[in-house]
Write a structure and sequence with these properties.
Helices cover 35% and strands 20% of the residues. The longest helix is centred in the C-terminal third of the chain and has 16 residues.
């Protein structure tokens, strides 16, 4: 009956729905399994990469060749693919492909290859490596292949894969962060255009040549937002990660997005160019959104020199296994949607206990009532005849070919459309050059500027420079982008003048990037004398970077601007100071000036924090900080102690250790508490006696005593009996949830006898917030059969109430019990767990329907469920687990149900639990709060942090058990549980 209930639940989900005025239907049969990305050739055939359904990451890392490319054909033109065959197999997971000139370009990491069918049998028989050197560690490997209107091949990369691509001159283009790359069709002249992404998935071009891309992890989750739609421009740095590798210019702050989204896992993107959909949709973007089970429509709205978007749902699905991964426009103007199915569960968490993964499928979306398009690809056209009648053809494929045919004949077409300008850019000779230059004075000036850059027409530089001051913002930006490739020193003054006018971040970036390309160090030093702060800012930023020689920028040039009136110039100057370790004396003087103030503003507080960390290895800075911890105003002392908790020094400087020692005895309770917390994060060994004294002091607050024990337990796990009594007392339900979690974390790291563990387990017997699994690792010694039997009884009771530890975790406890204590019953209960889990899912599945979201909000923030202790919702809640502000957008009801009932079945990306074994014998666990080349900082279930230097780590591995406790449903009535689910699903 359980299996039937689950099967019915899987089959009940309806097919996806299209927006009003559109229809959606299956376009391919069951022969397609786990499709990922697609490409259409010039005959209308659809090539689709298919996953093996296995572990994408292991297959990429080990170059396992189990994936394939399927070729689908619509023989009768009805929009459904009747013919199917395997075009190529033996591929590593392939996440990008595009057709061009009889070849299928395919991502086959570490290679970019072309596949050709030379004998016409529908199977690839020639494989050519075009470019090699792409990393393959993660899903950020090579993907997103697309040809631009300039004829270059564009592709995307993500973290942590990186790339190292050989140029024609024998040098290498390399980088570590996610990036937008391009090369010529033969693989030559690779370039990095934009970088700083976690994972730039795919991009597409508007007719004017603007680039828009989909990014996963545009930012760390905040306010329920993580992913983004971005406007891609040459030379841009985006905010997730600074690039390491081939030097790339930094022009200022990272680029903002067009629009932010929850963790929808944006994937494929297409710019609509056809005529089947309403005219208002031309130029709209359509994106596949894996986690939210939808295809989004995005109306681009000009804003300054860039765009924002109005976002709408276009295709939606209630099936938890509907996961769109790609979207592309067919020649007739319909939209093809690729649903990858339910196999991809690694970085996009979804239910894993529902049975065999759904295989996915391919759908076609049409405008309701749309008539079939006659000859959508122009097969019946005599292309040797006149072309005039096809230049405005509603069929994009026909229109594009008409312009290409004209270019091939050497015919110059009137610059009446972007397609005409792109076609002219490929026509040799002065007539085409002059036509493009003349177009700079018309409505298509931005496209003309890009076409001239693609043509490498340096003679257009002066005309482009004039546009910097006379054109509207989008044209000024396009002109600046073209000047970055075509300009010279003669245009630099025009760039500086344009920079003094109104400029949003995109226009400012284009101008500074142009200055980077055309100004030498002498010209930039001269610009330091400009009266305009934005020109000064550009000059100091560029003087600090290659190819300007080291020493081109003096510290005085920077420090003198940290106190100027203009906030942007101040911020850029401070950031540059912090990037130069050799300028530490200047930083120390600046820091002492700040620390002497009675009150610091917000900007100064952030300046203190960032400067202390930037120069933490400098003795003068260390002394200034140590002195201020003992004498500065209380808010400043708290700020400094918090900054110390983030230091990555291999050994805490003596001045800081002494200051911290004095601070733990400070008469100010707030200072004392922060000092204890900092000592706990840094695991300072010299303060153990003081921590023990504070932990045992009845005059100290319970909060401070808890933090003192947390700092102490790593080196003194055998706690005094009074300390254990105190901690067990804090487990009582009358204390707050954070205190209970904190006490449990300390006990878990302690060495307890079975009798002490029994008392702790009894204290949390009815507590769903603190699971027994949190405490059982603390058992280190047995006190006899009686206590062992009592412990076994507590373990049995916990198992009967739903606790499901890993078998090895339970065995480690049972092995410490006396031999005469029977444990078979406990082992039998654990073996019954899988069936019980499925039964529980089936039992609670009806609660996905109905429910009151308003009542569910009360449950979420209430003490019984205590969800908000770890999870944030809007401006309220904790920061330990994932932010749930938009959770209803990205997780289906079934997935939410599974994550609550069986929290260790799936992990949200970035919230995986880790275990670290240290060289001194400690075992620490928690979420990775942050990490650097020198240290890893773990955050436990109570939100407390512990820093571990990498040279102290013996082993670091993913934990199989979530820090989210099991058994929440036991504390809630069924209607409360239904209301909680309704509340979570309503958060969109």
């Amino acid at each position: 009956m359980i299996g039937i209930a689950l099967l019915l639940f899987q089959q009940a989900a309806p097919p996806p729905r299209a927006a009003e005025g559109f229809t959606i239907e299956r376009a391919a049969g069951d022969e397609v399994a786990f499709p990922m990305f697609g490409a259409l050739d010039d005959r209308g055939r659809l090539f689709v990469t298919e996953s093996s359904g296995g572990d994408l990451y292991l297959e990429l890392q080990n170059l396992v060749r189990k994936c394939k490319i399927r070729l689908l054909e619509d023989a009768d033109g009805d929009g459904r693919y009747e013919k199917s065959r395997v075009f190529a197999e033996g591929l590593v997971p392939s996440m990008g492909l595009v057709w061009r000139d009889g070849k299928l370009y395919v991502a086959d990491p570490p290679d970019l290859v072309t596949l050709e069918d030379t004998d016409g049998d529908g199977k690839a028989d020639r494989r050519t490596v075009v470019l090699t050197g792409f990393g393959h560690k993660d899903n950020g490997s090579l993907h997103g292949l697309v040809f631009g209107p300039d004829g270059w091949l564009y592709m995307t990369m993500g973290l942590p894969d990186g790339y190292r691509l050989k140029r024609r001159d024998g040098t290498f283009l390399e980088g570590k962060s996610g990036a937008l790359l391009r090369c010529r069709p033969d693989g030559s002249d690779p370039e990095t255009l934009s970088r700083g992404f976690c994972n730039l998935v795919e991009l597409d071009f508007t007719e004017a040549g603007e680039m828009f891309g989909t990014v996963n992890w545009f930012q760390l989750p905040a306010g329920g937002l993580r992913d983004a739609l971005v406007h891609l421009v040459d030379g841009a740095l985006f905010p997730y990660d600074k690039d390491v590798g081939t030097p790339q210019p930094v022009t200022g702050e990272p680029m903002p997005p067009v629009s932010r989204f929850p963790a929808v896992a944006l994937s494929g993107v297409a710019v609509y160019r056809g005529a089947q959909f309403p005219a208002a949709m031309k130029g709209n973007l359509f994106t596949a959104q894996h986690n939210s089970r939808k295809v989004g429509r995005h109306v681009l709205i000009p804003e300054g020199s860039t765009y924002r978007s109005h976002n709408l749902d276009f295709v939606t699905g209630d099936d938890p296994d509907f996961h769109p991964s790609d979207v592309l426009e067919d020649a007739d103007g319909s939209l093809i949607v690729i649903d990858t199915g339910g196999w991809y569960i690694h970085h996009c968490p979804s239910g894993q206990l529902s049975g065999r993964p759904a295989p996915g499928g391919i759908y076609r979306v049409r405008a309701a009532g749309a008539k079939p398009v006659d000859d959508p690809r122009g097969f019946r056209i005599d292309w040797k005849g006149p072309l005039d009648g096809f230049l405005d053809d509603p069929r994009p494929v026909v229109r594009d070919r008409a312009f290409r045919e004209a270019a091939a004949r050497g015919e110059l077409l009137p610059p009446s459309s972007p397609a005409a300008l792109w076609a002219a850019s490929a026509v040799p000779g002065d007539r085409a050059t002059q036509a493009l230059r003349q177009a700079l004075g018309g409505d298509l000036a931005a496209t003309a500027a890009r076409a001239l850059a693609a043509r490498d027409d340096r003679g257009a530089a002066e005309a482009l420079a004039r546009l910097l001051e006379t054109g509207p913002p989008p044209v000024r930006r396009a002109a600046a982008e073209a000047l970055a490739r075509l300009g010279g020193p003669e245009q630099l003054q025009a760039v500086w003048r344009a920079l003094q006018g109104d400029a949003d971040r995109f226009l400012e970036h284009a101008l500074v990037f142009a200055a980077h390309r055309i100004a030498d160090a002498e010209a930039l030093r001269k610009a330091l004398g400009s009266a305009h702060p934005r020109v000064q800012k550009a000059a100091i930023i560029l003087l600090s970077q290659p190819p300007r020689p080291a020493g081109s920028l003096a510290p005085e040039d920077v420090v003198s601007r940290i106190a100027v009136e203009d906030a942007e110039l101040r911020g850029a100057s401070l950031k540059l100071l912090q990037q130069h370790p050799g300028w530490a004396p200047h930083a120390a003087r600046l820091l002492r000036g700040w620390l002497a103030k009675e009150r610091l503003g917000d900007e100064e507080r952030e300046g203190v924090r960032s400067t202390v960390l930037a120069f933490q290895a400098d003795g003068a800075v260390q002394e200034a900080v140590a002195a201020a911890i003992g004498s500065a105003a209380a808010p400043t002392r708290l700020l400094l102690l918090d900054a110390l908790a983030r230091t990555s020094q291999k050994q805490l400087p003596r001045a800081w250790a002494d200051a911290l020692s004095r601070a733990v005895g400070d008469p100010d309770p707030a200072v004392r508490l922060q000092a204890v917390r900092t000592a706990g994060v840094l695991r300072v060994p010299g303060l153990d006696d003081e921590m023990a004294r504070l932990a045992e002091s009845p005059t100290e607050t319970a909060e401070l005593r808890l933090d003192a024990l947390r700092a102490l337990v790593a080196r003194r796990p055998k706690l005094a009996p009074g300390a254990v009594d105190f901690l067990v007392g804090r487990l009582e339900a009358s204390t707050g949830p954070v205190a209970r979690l904190a006490a449990a974390e300390v006990l878990r790291r302690a060495h307890l006898s079975d009798l002490q563990l029994v008392r702790a387990l009894q204290a949390v017997r009815e507590d769903t917030l603190v699971a027994p699994g949190t405490l059982v690792p603390a058992l280190r010694e047995s006190t006899g059969p009686e206590a062992g039997s009592a412990l076994l009884a507590e373990l049995e009771a916990a198992l009967r109430k739903g606790w499901r530890p890993r078998e090895e975790e339970l065995e480690a406890v049972l092995a410490r019990l006396p031999a005469e204590v029977p444990s078979k019953r406990v082992r039998d209960l654990l073996r019954e767990a899988p069936g019980e889990i499925r039964a529980k899912l089936a039992e609670y599945e009806p609660l996905l329907e109905g429910g009151d979201a308003a009542r569910g909000r009360v449950v979420f923030f209430g003490a019984n469920a205590a969800c908000s202790t770890c999870h944030r919702m809007g401006d309220l809640g904790g920061h330990v687990g994932p932010d749930l502000t938009k959770i209803g957008t990205v997780r289906s009801g079934r997935d939410l149900l599974e994550s609550i009932l069986v929290p260790s079945s799936t992990f949200a990306q970035g919230y995986e639990s880790y275990k670290i074994a240290t060289e001194d014998g400690n075992v620490l666990s928690g979420l990775v709060a942050r990490q650097s080349a020198d240290a890893v900082v773990l955050k436990d279930a109570a939100g407390a942090e512990t820093q571990v230097r990498r040279d102290q780590i013996r082993r670091m591995e993913r934990a199989a058990v979530s820090i989210m406790p099991e058994g929440l449903e036991r504390k809630l009535a069924r209607e409360e549980f239904r209301d909680l689910i309704a509340f979570l699903r309503s958060q969109r």
